[in-house]
Design brief:
20 helices, 618 residues, eight-stranded antiparallel β-sheet, Glutamine Phosphoribosylpyrophosphate, subunit 1, domain 1, alpha/beta, Rossmann fold, globular
Length: 618
């Protein structure tokens, strides 16, 4: 989950590194550091805290900023506390090798013991320092080049990594390697400079030509020379495939918004339209999803579906379960990716496994995907990032077109995933004749109005500001929903936890009586999803139970619902919508409520503590 940045070329490297690190802070912000190379020497600075702290340290120490070659890193701690010593870059014992790393070297302890016996010493608690010293040991022992020592070392380690390493005595060569953690190379338009990054958005100002390093590959970059791409296992040379980035700068800038999260909440009407574009053709009553259309027989004949995901994507998966079972009559199981790989799951050849991930790099989901494929399943992916690992490994899939999501707390990717699941459920219903023509026409019409209804729901922000002012100092919240709204309750509670650090839990409303009701008193705000549906009277009963115990009720309800106005403390009225599409609207007030409460509590909304956007370690 760490952020890697590097530059090799003719420009001043410092500004490229610092500005790149700022764009990568969503990947980790426990500590950061840079190394600049000039005249076969290097200047190194690293510190605990954010990139802004690194800048202050650099200028207070009057660090020499010369050099057109450099490495930078922003860390999400795995091995060792966040501090100056454990921050990257890490240096070998001889001070000759300088390396940055994202991932986990699982057998680092055994390697460390071996190196200690061979006279090496360690300053940090990190697995990265172990790896850079292993490379140094093998380079000396075998009297080999740096690239050969890197290749041999990586064939010995167990775990995941993306690394960038430079030799002090030969700084005009940078070696990169990848297994399980993303890294990309931006190629300057004149082919005389290279940009290195965990996410290409960090070099978007300079080039849109990018090479995504694949698992088991390493690349040797040399100044003023073409890149040299090879297989780690056998040193076999590979022809690089250069792709063109389709992101524009406005997508990764905050614009008029104070935080990316608020910008991304307000982007959701556009994201809905972008995700539906070229997929939903209302006049022709057609839904087009290439990965489904080209595998129609598999989807038509399947007897069950398993959806695998983590975090917010797991909540979207629960909504997908509801949609597919209701519209298509197919049994669906939803699994946490982190648990799926350890339970010896029963997977039959041609079973359908759907994996969902915003980044397409989620380590647990990738592991589950690989296990499913090994057992012969047909794996369908839903992700947001083009060219990501999940997009490459699945048998078929679909992109959500949500655009870059910089805020750590996912918002627009959640609604985009739901839209894809809605399209998938309707399409399968047409294949399997469980959705008739009149019902599908009604669903198409509802889909056509969703973007406009989300826009109207966003107008509730002022009301939610007022509600937030009353409760932002409370320490606990409860979120309740029934049916398709239970996953929305879970997502609302997660958003509040993530960015405000208030303890919050989501429950099926009927389960309140089986434990959580003991917590309800005048200091417990309860957010209830109470739109008009088959469960409405049941939900009203739950609200009465809360009020009887002096609980505070914040209800998300439909327009013109006079009944709920009489009993709830606060009512947030959203536009009327078909129940199976309602999560696209009910989640919006929950996102805004979490944002406003976190804002009032003066939290860093885009970079909540202990969290990173892309979870690339298990």
């Amino acid at each position: 989950m760490c952020g890697i940045i590097g530059y090799l070329g003719y420009r001043k490297a410092y500004h490229i590194l610092i500005n790149g690190l700022k764009k990568l802070e969503y990947r980790g912000y426990d500590s950061s550091g840079i190394a600049l190379f000039h005249n076969n020497e290097y200047n190194l600075c690293k510190t605990i805290g954010k990139v802004s702290d690194l800048e202050k340290t650099i200028f207070s120490k009057k660090m020499n900023l010369k050099g057109s070659i450099g490495l930078g890193h922003t860390r999400w701690a795995t091995h060792g506390l966040p501090n100056n010593v454990n921050a990257h870059p890490h240096v070998s014992n001889s001070n000759e090798l300088i390396m940055i790393h994202n991932g986990i070297i699982e057998n680092h302890h055994a390697i460390k013991i071996f190196l200690l016996k061979n006279g090496f010493f360690f300053k940090s608690e990190t697995d990265t320092e172990v790896l850079v010293n292993l490379i140094e040991y093998l380079k000396i022992e075998n009297k080999s080049s740096l690239e050969e020592a890197v290749r041999i070392s990586l064939n010995e380690v167990i775990g995941t990594y993306s690394i960038a390493i430079i030799e002090k005595s030969n700084p005009e060569t940078v070696i990169l390697a990848k297994l399980g953690s993303p890294i990309s190379i931006g190629i300057g338009y004149n082919e005389k400079e290279f940009f290195i990054a965990s996410d290409p958005i960090s070099f978007l100002n300079y080039t849109k030509n990018v090479l995504y390093l694949q698992d088991g590959e390493m690349v040797i970059l040399k100044k003023n020379k073409k890149l040299d791409l090879r297989k780690i296992v056998n040193n076999l040379k590979i022809s690089p495939i250069i792709k063109k980035l389709k992101i524009n700068l406005k997508e990764i800038e905050k614009g008029k918004y104070k935080y990316f999260m608020l910008k991304e909440i307000y982007e959701q009407p556009k994201i809905i339209l972008d995700t539906l574009k070229s997929r939903l053709f209302i006049s022709n009553e057609i839904i087009y999803i290439n990965g489904v259309d080209s595998n129609k027989e598999i989807f038509t004949k399947t007897k069950s579906i398993t959806i695998i995901a983590c975090g917010t994507s797991w909540h979207a998966s629960l909504i997908g379960e509801y949609l597919i079972e209701k519209l298509d009559h197919i049994p669906v199981e939803v699994e946490y990716a982190s648990e799926f790989i350890y339970k010896d799951p029963i997977i039959n050849p041609k079973d359908i496994i759907i994996v969902i991930s915003q980044s397409g790099e989620t380590a647990d989901t990738l592991s589950a995907l690989k296990l499913a494929k090994k057992k012969g399943a047909f794996v369908f992916g839903i992700c947001n990032v083009v060219g990501s690992s999940i997009a490459r490994y699945v048998d078929a899939g679909v992109y959500t077109h949500a655009g870059p999501e910089i805020g750590v707390a996912s918002t627009k990717s959640f609604t985009a995933q739901i839209i894809i699941l809605i399209l998938l459920a309707i399409k399968l219903g047409k294949y399997r004749s469980t959705v008739n023509k009149s019902f599908s026409q009604f669903l198409y019409k509802e889909l056509d109005s969703i973007s406009e209804k989300i826009n109207r729901t966003l107008e509730l922000n002022t009301t939610l500001q007022k509600v937030s002012n009353l409760y932002y100092n409370y320490n606990n919240f409860l979120y309740l929903g029934r049916g398709i709204h239970f996953p929305v309750a879970l997502e609302g509670a997660l958003k509040l936890k993530e960015i405000s650090y208030i303890h919050a839990e989501g429950y099926p409303a009927a389960e309140m009586k089986h434990g959580p009701i003991a917590l309800i008193d005048e200091k417990m705000p309860v957010v209830v999803l109470a739109t008009k549906n088959d469960f409405y009277e049941k939900i009203m009963g739950n609200i009465q139970e809360i009020k009887a115990r002096k609980g505070i009720v914040i209800a998300i309800a439909n327009q013109n619902d006079c009944q709920i106005d009489m009993i709830a403390d606060h009512v947030i009225n959203i536009p009327n919508i078909c129940d199976i599409f309602s999560p696209l609207l009910t989640v919006i007030p929950l996102q805004l409520l979490a944002y406003q409460i976190a804002f009032l509590r003066k939290k860093n909304i885009d970079q909540p503590r202990n969290l990173a956007k892309s979870v690339t370690v298990e």
